[in-house]
Amino acid sequence: MTASFMDLVDVTIVNIAMPSIQKDIGASFSILQWITEGYALAFAAGLITGGRLGDIYGRRRIFLLGMSGFTLASMLCGTAGDPHLLVAARVFQGATAALMVPQVLAIVHATFPAHERGKVFGMFGAVVGLGAVSGPILGALLTQWNLFGLEWRPIFLVNLPVGIAGLLLGRRYISESRAPKALKLDLVGVLLASGGLLMLLYPLTQGRELGWPLWGYLCMAGSAVVFAAFVAYERYKARKDGSPLVELSLFRVKSFAAGVGVEIAFGVACGIFFLIWTLYMQIGLGWSPLRAGLTGIPFSLAVSVAAGLSVQKLVPRFGRKVLQAGALAMAAGVLLYIWEAGHYGTGIKPWQMAAPLIVMGLGMGLVVAPLTEAVLSEVPREHSGSASGLINTTQQLGNAVGLGLVSVVFFNALDAKALAAGRTGEAFATAFRHGMWWVAGVLGVVLALMFALPRRSAGAAAE
């Protein structure tokens, strides 16, 4: 539970501190992207491998190794004096999270008998909700308080006592477990997938600042070749020893293939929104971290309420329509936000943002809670583990791609003349509206793909 909480808080806490990081160590806009994108990319690339390492070498051992690395990486992030060192430490942090996080539910599954797991998963859900809600507020308070003159650094350093406590408790209370028959590692697959993603995302993120050079376009085109090589190798690996990184046969299940598309597109929309929203409030409108963090509370509460209702009450009765209603509600909230940002301009108040944020939050809650079950409902039981790992990975990949696109959909739309004339608020408000139109478009893709999901999940049909 401690590990899951640290990971969730670390994902959400950083966005609030972005402007403070930019001022303190002179980070460029592309560096700000890499601070979040580097973590998401390393986390996504290592998730499946991290799970397999736990199956092979022991979940307790890999969990403690991951938590040790995560705690060390947090210290490196908190003491970094150079923007590039901070990005490197964040990549290391994402890689160690990929060792730690996949073990959490595997340890629960191995430790508790079936009749007790329901209570544990209930606690897990509560911790997930608490992490998502408290991350922005904790980040805002730690940045605003400027403890010991450390500016933004406490957002990372706060992980040190938590991580050390988790290590001590983990060594004492977690029992070791392994999979009876674990799949082999596919390090070549990891390298090909990671290389292809880096070839796609690096030019996307850096291209604007470098003037969109020719090598950037060639690199992005080359990523398609690397992904094709990845698919070919995965087919070979499946024939050779039956343990590819990605089980390609899963994509023959129409609902799963469409569901992976939904996960990626939804991750892209979230990756774009959360970063440009923070930059708009703090740099564009000049709000303090605390004011920006508190503005997001209606959104977080709406997500929590809708998530609980969707799983317990709505999905068993209405099935796929609940997810589609969620995507529509999110899109409606985005369009309302675009109108408000244009109507009120730089004089917009937090309470005026509450309406679109509540609508967006309700929509997100209706989607995120039941989506995984809907995607997995028609997958053969023997492949459920591989499918779950792939879903978690694609969520993170979508987020990383969304963060990479911020340079195109937001920073590219910043009016250089307005910035030079000191009209920062006007420039950022215009770019925010431009980016939000992209979010609305991606949510349209999400809605279209949802028509390929099963009308009812297997659990709801049985009930």
UniProtKB/TrEMBL annotation:
The chain crosses the membrane at residues 31-50, 62-81, 87-108, 120-142, 154-170, 182-202, 214-234, 255-280, 292-310, 322-339, 351-376, 397-414, 434-453. It is a multi-pass membrane protein. InterPro entries: EmrB-like, MFS, MFS_dom, MFS_trans_sf, Tet-R_TetA/multi-R_MdtG-like. GO terms for cellular component: plasma membrane. Residues 1-459 form the Major facilitator superfamily (MFS) profile domain. CDD domains: MFS_MMR_MDR_like (cd17321). Keywords: Antibiotic resistance, Cell membrane, Membrane, Transmembrane, Transmembrane helix, Transport. One of its GO terms (biological process) is response to antibiotic. SUPFAM superfamilies: MFS general substrate transporter (SSF103473). It is found in: Cell membrane. GO terms for molecular function: transmembrane transporter activity. PANTHER family: ACTINORHODIN TRANSPORTER-RELATED, MAJOR FACILITATOR SUPERFAMILY MULTIDRUG TRANSPORTER MFSC. This is MFS transporter. It comes from Streptomyces morookaense (Streptoverticillium morookaense). The lineage of its organism: Bacteria, Bacillati, Actinomycetota, Actinomycetes, Kitasatosporales.
